[in-house]
């Protein structure tokens, strides 16, 4: 397919909104959703009536775990919208599935402005029931266990931390990576979060603090795990023909990539030192003439710090087995480094907006609105999202 025919070339990001991160929030999930959505819409200079597409990931999940408490229907009604297109299943490429579906809907002519939102209320859920949201199901012990969890819960592996600890240990064993190298990701995230007023954890930590923190599932420590919050993020996508007259400079979507593996159903392949995110990275780079060296800033998925190492390699910023050495000491991934990374503090320190915080931060960087953490003259940003299904975007400052 000629590059000009790729659907993402027809679409721009024209608005973005995010609520405060709460642990927990005093607002309901629907209130948070409406706040983020209105911020995205109004920031673009539009009204809810102008929005003719709406979608979210993964849709309402009434299990009490707070992973997705709000769906498109109640959001549509609360905002007074009458969209002509509403996204359906977004399982395929997981977290970024709603974004990629929105791009396809706009490029196909189904709508011109699509609002994508993602709301979580895991802090509230855990405040009520400590084990809410673990892989064993909802807040009720003894709830049915399905999918990949059915292969882990019988062996007392209730958390994704147990699963990704296997990847971390395999990576350590194969490539000689160390805890101090892995810990550089957490230390860098906290350093970035110090400049983000909306981050949950803003007090800097040292590598010594990291190494002294308790082990959650060896070799993963406390600071290797993301931070559950209540909050909502909304991103507005528009057809390029409708984007030029809006209030914010449109952000171009240079390329996208996606892939899906079998972790969600308990199917593992390979030696636990790589993920199917490799295919998402390869797809993204196949749709652009840009190269990894052209990227000014990166927002790399960090549900657990080991995922960040694997994504860095999947996106071609490092060779296989080289990511741990790349991040060591944090200088390369700091604000003045060759690849400033997770400039909001990411999910490890800013809060688990379930990957959508990474896209929001990418928008701020490309609009030059990131304040003290702004990367100078940021023009190209790579975003990755997902630990079970995988999505990647390459974004460019418009103009």
Which descriptors apply to this entry?
globular; 399 residues; alpha/beta; two-stranded antiparallel sheet; 32% helix; 11 strands
Biggest sheet character = 9 strands, mixed
Segments where pLDDT lies below 50 for 5+ residues? Answer: none
- The average pLDDT score comes to 92
What is the β-strand count? 11
Describe this structure in words.
There is one protein chain. The protein is of the alpha/beta class. The chain contains 14 helices and eleven strands. It has helices at residues 29-43, 72-79, 97-107, 122-128, 149-152, 160-175, 179-193, 207-212, 240-243, 277-286, 305-314, 323-327, 346-349, 356-367; strands at residues 11-18, 53-56, 85-86, 113-121, 215-217, 220-221, 230-239, 251-260, 297-299, 380-385, 389-397. The strands form two sheets. Strands 3-2-4-7-1-8-11-10-9 form a nine-stranded mixed sheet. Strands 5-6 form a two-stranded antiparallel ribbon. It is globular and about 55 Å long.
């Amino acid at each position: 397919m000629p590059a000009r025919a790729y659907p993402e070339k027809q679409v721009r990001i024209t608005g973005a909104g995010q609520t405060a991160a709460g642990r927990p929030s005093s607002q309901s999930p629907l209130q948070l959703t409406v706040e983020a959505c209105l911020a995205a819409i109004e920031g673009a200079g539009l009204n809810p009536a102008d929005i003719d597409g709406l979608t979210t990931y993964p849709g309402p999940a009434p299990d009490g775990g707070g992973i997705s408490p709000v769906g498109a229907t109640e959001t549509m009604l609360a905002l007074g919208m009458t969209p002509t297109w509403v996204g359906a299943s977004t399982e395929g490429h997981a977290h970024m599935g709603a974004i990629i579906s929105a791009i396809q809907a706009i490029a196909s002519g189904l709508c011109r402005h699509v609002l994508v939102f993602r709301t979580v209320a895991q802090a509230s859920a855990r405040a009520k029931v400590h084990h809410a949201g673990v892989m064993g199901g909802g807040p009720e012990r003894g709830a049915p266990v399905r999918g990949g969890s059915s292969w882990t819960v019988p062996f007392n592996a209730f958390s994704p931390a147990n699963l990704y600890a296997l990847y971390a240990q395999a990576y350590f064993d194969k490539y000689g990576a160390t805890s101090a190298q892995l810990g550089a990701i957490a230390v860098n995230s906290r350093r970035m979060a110090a400049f983000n007023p909306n981050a949950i954890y803003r007090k800097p930590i040292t590598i010594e603090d990291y190494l002294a923190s308790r082990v959650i599932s060896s070799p993963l420590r406390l600071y290797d795990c993301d931070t559950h919050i209540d909050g909502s993020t909304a991103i507005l996508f528009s057809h390029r023909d409708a984007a030029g007259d809006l209030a914010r400079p449109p952000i171009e979507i240079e390329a996208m990539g996606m892939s899906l593996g079998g972790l969600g159903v308990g199917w593992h392949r390979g030696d636990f030192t790589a993920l199917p995110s490799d295919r998402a990275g390869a797809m993204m780079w196949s749709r652009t003439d840009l190269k990894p060296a052209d990227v000014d800033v990166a927002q790399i998925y960090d549900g657990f710090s080991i995922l960040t190492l694997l994504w860095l390699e999947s996106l071609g910023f490092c060779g296989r087995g080289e990511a741990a050495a790349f991040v060591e000491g944090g200088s390369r991934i700091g604000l003045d480094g060759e690849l400033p990374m997770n400039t909001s503090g990411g999910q490890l320190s800013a809060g688990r907006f379930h990957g959508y915080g990474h896209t929001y931060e990418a928008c701020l960087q490309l609009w030059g609105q990131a304040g003290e953490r702004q990367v100078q003259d940021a023009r190209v940003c790579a975003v990755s999202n997902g630990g079970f299904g995988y999505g990647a975007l390459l974004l460019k400052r418009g103009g």
